Amino acid sequence: MIRFENVSKVYARGARPALDDVSVDVSRGEFVFLVGASGSGKSTFLRLVLREERPTGGRVYVAGRDLSRLSSWKVPSLRRSIGVVFQDFRLLPNKTVHENVAFALQVIGKPRHTISTTVPEVLEMVGLDGKEKRMPHELSGGEQQRVAIARAFVNRPQILLADEPTGNLDPTTSLGIMRLLDRINRTGTTVVMATHDDEIVNEMRKRVVELSTGSVVRDEIDAVYGHRESILPAVGQTPVLDAPGRDAPAVVHRVQVTPEPADLEAERAAEAAAARAAESGDQQPAAALPAAPAVEDRPVDQRPVAQAPVEPVGPPAADRVPEPGSPDDVVQQVLREHERVRAGREA
Ligand SMILES: Nc1ncnc2c1ncn2[C@@H]1O[C@H](COP(=O)(O)OP(=O)(O)OP(=O)(O)O)[C@@H](O)[C@H]1O
């Protein structure tokens, strides 16, 4: 789903690379934590996936597309297959909860009746039913992040990128947010999350890709946040590099995701649903979303695969509507609107 092949990124001539010969392969449906010290290149990685930045070396593939060959007018459609969640939520302060989520669908030209059915379903999924009319400032931090996640997910992206989504939240609230992201991941959405939150990473036990000054120094499944030293004795893992650098291979462990039988069933059903959706020329209605009771109550490590929502992960809206010069770039529109409102406030 996401492949980095020997990717380097140097922002300014003479500066040290923000990413240095990074090769990482993220399979469809995986959940990956990107960890590493401040400045290690996590956000740069995410920006390259969104094609907000271009690599100075190597290639980035997203959903089979080589981003270096993607013409600019196709970037909005690429971004429609990617949801993004930020540390500071970036909600539109002058819009209600419902309007914030609806905005992501309006931008891509979804009809009003689709919006009016889809938004409540997604808000229910994230545990915010009954709060549709609230303004962002009337919500807790955790609730605001749930709105942001609903907005990122309402368009059923294939990929969800999260840049420090729990960075502004207390530990208990963070755990609730992680459970929500976990549920979204179980629908088939690939999740890549940059974080400094060791408690969360240790609790979730997902794949962890660790960056250090732009290089991958660890890539492990079922991993903890840890430090490189502490993972050396891990059983069944390729030994971790002692001194990663130019001469050393950047990827220390390739992940094989073996779906459980129930996952396979869900995947097949999702594929069938996706095929039907492709035939009808529309995405699957959000009615297939699960209700969200007890998001908070379920242990993170419990795998309720039997109840796992059967979600189509495709077809990417991106592939269906290539519109030259299209303004329907959700990420950009949301950020632009956010900036516009903030500038208006400051003026
Ligand atoms: N737009 C930019 N122009 C120049 N240098 C940049 C730019 N963005 C990032 N960098 C540099 O690239 C390196 C990696 O930054 P990046 O933001 O990717 O790290 P990070 O791991 O996400 O850090 P943090 O955890 O603090 O968010 C840093 O040295 C940073 O100063």
Automatic annotation (TrEMBL):
Could you tell me which SUPFAM superfamilies the record lists for this protein? Answer: P-loop containing nucleoside triphosphate hydrolases
Q: Does the keyword Nucleotide-binding apply?
A: yes
PROSITE patterns on file: ABC_TRANSPORTER_1 (PS00211), ABC_TRANSPORTER_2 (PS50893)
Which segments constitute the ABC transporter domain? 2-238
Where is this chain compositionally biased, Basic and acidic residues type? 335-347
Family matches, as SMART domains: AAA
Gene3D superfamilies registered for this protein in UniProt = P-loop containing nucleotide triphosphate hydrolases (3.40.50.300)
Which keywords does UniProt give here?
ATP-binding, Cell cycle, Cell division, Cell membrane, Membrane, Nucleotide-binding
- Looking at the keywords, is Hydrolase present? no
Pfam families, per the entry: ABC_tran
Q: Where in the cell is it found?
A: Cell membrane
Where do the segments described as Disordered lie?
274-347
**Ranges of Low complexity composition bias in the record:** 285-294
Its record classes its membrane topology as: Peripheral membrane protein
How is the subunit organization of this protein annotated in UniProt? Homodimer. Forms a membrane-associated complex with FtsX.
Q: What protein family does this chain belong to?
A: Belongs to the ABC transporter superfamily.
Function statement: Part of the ABC transporter FtsEX involved in cellular division.
Q: What is this protein called?
A: Cell division ATP-binding protein FtsE
Per the UniProt record, the source organism is: Isoptericola cucumis
Q: Which gene encodes it?
A: ftsE
